[in-house]
TrEMBL record:
It comes from Tolypothrix tenuis PCC 7101. The chain holds residues 347 to 502 of 502 of the full protein. Photoreceptor which exists in two forms that are reversibly interconvertible by light: the R form that absorbs maximally in the red region of the spectrum and the FR form that absorbs maximally in the far-red region. It comes from the Bacteria. Residues 1-151 form the Histidine kinase domain. This is histidine kinase.
């Protein structure tokens, strides 16, 4: 069953606004006209929810957290960008960030197991997708997730 990614993103941002909206500002943007995709809704919620939760956890009060969706019908790829204005990730930690139990050197008092991103990455790759990030310490972090809009066509 195809899902509407625009509606899906709107809803997850709404959900985060209700729970965390007094501390952070959540924004959703999208310019794509068609956003239908064949995806496991629960798994997508898990993936984006995890990345958004990290954005919340590693951002100071008042930080803006933006989810941007782009669906490219030519390449058949949906791109999700999650941008925050948080603590950022030190360059020295980049190469180990997707390893189990690894947490960057600047996480200080926040709690975590260092497993969220490991499971997120595995889930994305199981769908023939990719995850990457860019970051600047003290400025913010952007995670980019690419997923095929239709894995059935993709696999043929
Ligand atoms: P948990 O397993 O509970 O999710 P965690 O948040 O520490 O614990 P991951 O979600 O796997 O683990 O993230 C790994 C590390 O990547 C974090 O400990 C943190 O150092 C860094 N990180 C992830 N997202 C961000 C972000 N948005 N801003 C800054 N650092 C981040
Ligand atoms: Mg986490």
């Amino acid at each position: 069953v195809p899902i509407n990614l625009y509606k899906f993103c709107q809803e997850i941002i709404e959900e985060f606004t209700i729970v965390e909206g007094s501390i952070h500002e959540f924004v959703f943007t999208c310019e794509s006209q068609t956003t239908d995709a064949v995806m496991d809704e629960r798994l997508l919620h898990y993936i984006l929810g995890n990345i958004l939760s990290n954005a919340v956890k590693y951002s100071p009060e008042g930080g803006r957290i933006q989810l941007h969706l782009q669906c490219d019908s030519l390449t058949g790829i949906a791109t999700f960008e999650i941008q925050d204005q948080g603590i950022g990730i030190p360059e020295i930690d980049y190469s180990k960030l997707f390893e189990s139990f690894y947490r960057a050197s600047n996480v200080k008092l926040t709690q975590g197991n260092g497993l969220g991103l490991v499971i997120v990455k595995k889930s994305i790759e199981a769908h023939n997708g990719q995850i990457s990030f860019t970051s600047q310490v003290g400025v913010g972090t952007k995670f980019t997730v690419n997923l095929p809009l239709n894995p059935i066509i993709f696999n043929e």
